[in-house]
Amino acid sequence: MYIIFLGVPGAGKGTQATEVAEKLKLVYIATGDLFRQAIGGETELGMRVKSYVEAGKLVPDEITIKMVLDRLSAPDAGRGAILDGFPRSIKQAEALDEALGKESKAIDKVILIKVSEEELLKRLGGRWTCPSCQTLYHEVSSPPKVWGKCDRCGARLYQRRDDAPQIVKRRLRVYFAQTAALIDYYEKQGKLIEVDGKGEVAEVSERITQALTQGEFVAR
Ligand code: AMP
Question: How far apart are the CA of 176 and the centre of ligand 1, in A?
């Protein structure tokens, strides 16, 4: 069972994809997380991708495809996987189809989480993180009691580098220029399911579960 989560950065893909992975007991593979871990660990891969990730640009296809296919060939991904943040270009999608096809496997469904651009700028642009205890805040929806300070541990909050407003705008541009083409790609394959991403996490999650169960897919 292979399910892809598509949607603009900030659509809530990560949160929703993690939940579905838990429900279906499948591994969760998020390319953004893998890249950030590599950068944090200062590995060779991390060094190669750091400048792209921090600037909000796509990491070159060759590097990304290799990383994902290696991860998919690990034993824990033998039953399938939930993919978040991959593919992000047609080339990546084709490489994935080809690699799965060689093993007589295929992508089953693609969930597209839809959120308006206005909402996204609000969500991503206002996100602040505690460097010490990792608590997340939002300028509008969940601000700290004292501006710039973590309620829990008092540390000074920071913005993920690629959450800075100008980088967020670029990440959205990159999405519309390169990743949005995947909507068509998977629609033509009859695999696309569109889900409204507005509202509480639980509401969106319920919509996704319903969409997946409607097509006898989960019961298989
Ligand atoms: P994300 O956490 O999914 O927003 O990803 C953070 C950053 O990692 C992106 O802005 C890109 O720089 C890089 N990245 C993640 N997934 C991919 C991908 N499939 N192809 C190229 N770059 C990626």
Answer: 14
